[in-house]
Amino acid sequence: MKYILTLVLALCGPMLWAQTDACEQYNEQGDSLLQAGQYERALGSYRRAQRLAHSRADRVAEAVALTNQGVAYRITEHADSALYCYQRALTLAQQSGDKSELSHVLCSIAILYANTSRVAEAERYARRAARTAHASRDIDMIMYCDYTYGSILTLRGRYTEAIATLRAMAAEARRQHRPNYMLKGYTAIIDYFLKMKTAATAPRRSAALADSIDRYIAVCDTLFRRVSPASPEGQGYLEEKYLVLRQLGRYRESIAVQQLILSLRPQGLITPADCLYTIMARNYADLHQPALSAQCYEQALAAKDSMAQTAIDSQLSEFTARYDTAQKELEIARLSARQNRLLAILAVAAVVCVALGAAVWLVRRGARLRSARRYIEGMEQERDRLGHELHDGIAGDLLGLSLCLDTQPVEESAQMLRDLHQDVRRISHELMPPRFAHTSFQECARAYLQAVAGATFSSDPGVVVAPHVAFQLYRVLQETVTNIRRHAHATYIHVELAPHQLVIENDGYQGHQGHGAGSQSLAERARAIHATIAYQCHDDICRQILTLHR
Predict the structure, then answer these.
(1) Between vectors from CA 320 to CA 314 and to CA 321, what angle results, nearest 5°?
(2) What number is the average pLDDT over the span 369-374?
(3) What average pLDDT does this structure show over 371-381?
(4) What class, spelled out in words, does domain 439-548 have in CATH?
(5) Does the pTM exceed 0.85?
């Protein structure tokens, strides 16, 4: 037995290692394609890495692949898709317990929120990312998260905390002999001093800040010689440098840096060429050299056209590859079909036997479903009736009373009654159920959440909710959000619709976990559609998860 086990391990070990290598290779391939601007192909590599990781239940590797997909979606300005990938990666990272990857996902979410001008949420996620990274003791991740947190604090205008965080990050990079992170940190400090100079009003203070910028540029120039010029840190510094020099009015120096970036194009170019040429044209215009400025504008237009053609060619190549793959799969399917005909005949016989047994169960289950549907319809009819009574009866009476009081000197009472009338109209509309026969659950949920401050909604593409299920999901959404608004001190609410799940997330409310009326109401609605409700709280985030069971 020992020898057999040894043989099995010897045979399986290389296969598992090959899977690990393949997963990493797909991710690395995606990184290279992403840097080259081939975003669709990069997404394809990341998806292959995700499928491979999912097949062997490697949550960390799957989270890495999903995070990479989110980065690609963020770069191509598909914020909803990026957030969807990040949320899935966040769940996997939390389940795995890997603090390093968890901090990576949180940091990516923070960057996404910062890029979409949601800086308050960005700061909250960046702070969680930095705290988690320090607990992981991953030096590279600690410095990466501290850098992100310091940069977001700068965007928030919290300059004292920002400069302290960035200087501590640069000092740690110096102790760890990480010149790339030193350059990254000092580049962010240059941006900090530039913002402070722009905000300065006194000439003496502005001159002092300019001197600080020059000193840090000199330090970064020294560090730049210790890293690869084509690295993200190297090109990030060059991009910041030419922008800073331009804002300082040093146009010739800014052009020299831009020409250096263009010379690195064969090794990879982070800054889009059309943007680079456009800013170079403005530098020449400020130097009163219109001929060179016009030439740069022509190069910017040519670069933009080239980028568009490259994107089209990439899509055509991808479509061709998909077609070839489909043809091969079709041929394989034809060959397999001949072998599977006998198995199909046997399978049909087995299905007939199973169907006979399932028919009795379906009849009984159908009776229970009809009873549940009658219960749901009756409950909705009662709510509809109450809504009309409030709107047509009580609201009308209150309006008449308000009109009478308007003729009297009691103005405060009249205003109070007018406000009460508006509240009753709002309650009546909330009690009236939406007509899901003519609209989708997603549209109703999105419209309802638009009126709630700090609330957002996302949906997995392709999810279709049946009308009788949509009624209950919508009521669960209404009751939960109402409780969050009344009882919690939440700054944001996010609702996500996934296949067979409705997740309501906030940063203050822990949900109905007792035996009160609210808890019983939500439980009854869940049972009516064969669903369960669970609650998860981690750090500052609370999630209510409704899961539909088939």
Answers:
(1) 90
(2) 59
(3) 56
(4) alpha beta
(5) no
